[in-house]
Model the fold of this input.
Amino acid sequence: MNYTTQMDAARKGIITKEMEVVAKKESIEIEDLRGLIAEGKVVIPANKNHKSLSAEGIGENLRTKINVNLGISKDCPNVDDELEKVKTAIDMKVEAIMDLSSYGKTAEFRNKLIEMSPAIIGTVPIYDAVGFYDKELSEITAKEFLKVVEKHAIDGVDFMTIHAGINRETAQVFKRNERLTNIVSRGGSLLYAWMELNDKENPFYEYYDEILEICAKYDVTISLGDACRPGSINDATDASQVKELIVLGELTKKAWEKNVQVMIEGPGHMALNEIKANMVLEKKLCHGAPFYVLGPIVTDIAPGYDHITSAIGGAVAASSGADFLCYVTPAEHLRLPNLDDMKEGIIASKIAAHAGDIAKGVNGAKEWDYKMSKARQALDWDTMFDLAIDSEKARRYRKESTPEHEDTCTMCGKMCSMRNMNKVMKGENINILRNDS
Done:
């Protein structure tokens, strides 16, 4: 039986090879997975032209996935430097990489990325449009924007951020409701500017049906972009954000009618106490579609440490229903991240995702922590290192400060609670002051 997309296959009762891969990774019954894909509650971004892909599922009852943003810019156009980051991100087993390239040899970087990456690949076509046509933003036509979408689909991109929710109606809500930081989404601000400069409707909204045809042909998952996401905690959960979310819910249903898979993108900067309600709101307004969040960043005062502010928010978001976390690095708001920034961002996001999975009761999540606790109780350092989310750093820290006794560390020494409780439980003397073991 033929099918166009993973959703189309699921609705026809077909089990694809990608579903088999995801079911095995997630330890989930394949019929349960197929049912969730058919409903739109799980997506498997898997472009037919991405031959190196190792499929991942994003959505309900699955592990929370993380995405890494990479790509060349006008100030940092070196393709080789970015490809080095790609290799490291793949080695660190990230589930998705977004190419946010906006200048220079964007096609070269994108094609190399897709060829080498088993991770899901995402792009934001509007970023590429200015360089692709070598035109000022206002001079690009609606149809030319669509050609960039089609080019990315042909190249093998698995999901694309499409800022279709900021239509003229949403723009009017934005104008009537003052914001501290206006529109901080790069794609959203470009489209708002294009609409204002040309006095026209958002081309991604006006020609949404044509975009759906492209996505259905290549099985590209649409990631409906949050042009009106808050760029400060002051702007969170305001009229512009909620209005756009309502539009995204309507666009989700239209996509599902064409068997196109959909994710919804979300905040953004947001106070800790608002995160849970926002997760519920998205799931309600967007009919259970998987939710992809940037952070959320829970305070605006920590440039240089926004991998931490976002990990705090990401853990709360994931525990409250978010399915996909976009990493944030220490360089956020400051510069293009370097290799070390990327590593720190990945680890912080992985911690947040796993903490959320424990809270959500995702199958197998607690088992990892159980094994670590068992190794700690046994003072089995090698097993602890093997289980660590960053094994390299854990080993380095241990090596940099060597204890007198191998079954301790340099913080507690022979006062180590694990060591002494093990001895006492066996009826042995704990001999803290004597030199014997």
